[in-house]
């Protein structure tokens, strides 16, 4: 058919349709070209990154955290393998479906999954998010079986902190916890990322930068299911350094066994340099509970417990010292010249001041007593009279000289100062003058006086080491194997107590009598062939008069029973260990605390060094 066969009208219509078709084709191709330009040029780097991320993953390799050992090289804290469940937000095709699957397979909470993924998918879509640490082997098997139906998930194997002996020395060692946003922003934890574990308390906190090490990294090729095909490049991690503590594992274990089912604390230290040999606080806790992330029920049970297991009573427990305070009153009286060691005073069991009568623990009195006998048998009436002669401010001055009423400077944990009252303190605190009757109570370690077990251990050590107060230390050495340039413990003397050697020797002799004389209140701590010196203390919770109200009415309720104290040093002639023991509501110090001191000393100084069973 020739063109002439079409009429002009038809030709015109065909030309218009051809132009429209041509224009449409040009527009379509223009859009396609523009889209390709946008994808390849404008957003090319973004999609190139996504493409590479679908094939190549950057995986962090966690460093082994340094181990913690006791003074003899016995491992206390190490590491074990942990299988952790992660998910890469960008790899999740259906978040709701993934959440339901993980809930069904291993019981993860839907709200927790959504909370973690919602925040991460917007900010860090390619960064793995930890959903659960330390999954069980059964959970691992289930997840691997359903791996193809769980896009985006991955399993990381990394070292997990392991407290080998459970709650042994838990308050000293501390525990780990997940780093929070504020800590990440603080700059104090360089190299840390969300989900990392850091030391929260104790040695784990004190030596966090040293123990932590430096993470490595690996570039790996993966398949569509996220499984590793091959390693492209790898930078190995650098393990953290090791920390050697001053504590003795066996002595620490014995201390904790002696405190089992009790509330209290034990501090044992080297009186010649301040090294902590054992520090136990009861009730205790297992730091392994915190490593994988503690659940709400367990955490609530710990923090709401009436025993306050997270409190380190050795550092922050504040108690009236009871008769242990008589050591300070005796030294103050000798130094101030108000006490003649040979002067005898009569004790008939009571001491009257104004309208008030103060009682001696020995109901019928001690008769005529001098200073040595007053210390050995712990005569209250004698020290009432000596305290009145001294006055509260002089007593306070000597107490502070021997380290009471202020922190010892122990570097691990929250230490309390205690309280050594003065006349100015009371006027400022209560707005009323000091009363003489309060001095009477202070002279036997009651009234407002409060001390901590670590202060008591430091004080008795100073009496027997010649009057030197050392800063207590718990780290003996820190460094990597074969590294001689790491941290090494050096004794740090805080001060030298200004008390004459003659007076110190007199008090030391009396304290030997406390344990070794037939009438000594600490006779239950006596050990054959080892000269033990010490002082018992019974800190009243209620007055003797109120205690007598319960006579004939059954056993005194637990909360009203006295606290039991015992401080000791052995061997007295050449001290190697100083002890402070407090048993809350334990009753008499000689009965409840002194036998524990005997076992501790016997274990530490005994030839075989075996743990001896504690028999109250």
Keywords, separated by commas or semicolons:
single chain, 616 residues, alpha+beta, Beta-lactamase, 2 domains, five-stranded antiparallel sheet, 20% strand
Could you provide a short overview of the structure?
With 616 residues, this protein is an alpha+beta fold.
Describe the model.
This protein is of the alpha+beta class and 616 residues long. It folds into two domains: 62-214 and 235-245, Penicillin-binding protein 2a (Domain 2) (Alpha-Beta Complex), CATH 3.90.1310.10; 249-285 and 312-475 and 491-605, 3-Layer(aba) Sandwich (Beta-lactamase). It is 37% helix and 20% strand. Strands 2, 3, 4, 5, 10, 18 and 19 form a seven-stranded mixed β-sheet that branches. The protein has a five-stranded antiparallel β-sheet with strand order 12-11-23-22-21. Strands 1-8-9 form a three-stranded antiparallel β-sheet. Helix 14 (326-336) crosses helix 16 (380-390).
**Coarse structural class:** alpha+beta
CATH topology of the largest domain: Beta-lactamase
Contiguous uncertain segments of 5+ residues: 607-616
Helical fraction equals 25-40%
Question: Would you identify the CATH architecture of the largest domain?
Answer: 3-Layer(aba) Sandwich
For the record, what is the CATH homologous superfamily label of the largest domain?
A: DD-peptidase/beta-lactamase superfamily
Radius of gyration: 36 Å
What do the pLDDT scores average to? Answer: 87
Number of discrete domains: 2
Shape: elongated
CATH class of the largest domain: Alpha Beta
Q: Compute the number of strand runs.
A: 23
Q: Please report the distance between the alpha carbons of the first and last residues.
A: 125 Å
Please give the largest β-sheet.
Answer: 7 strands, mixed
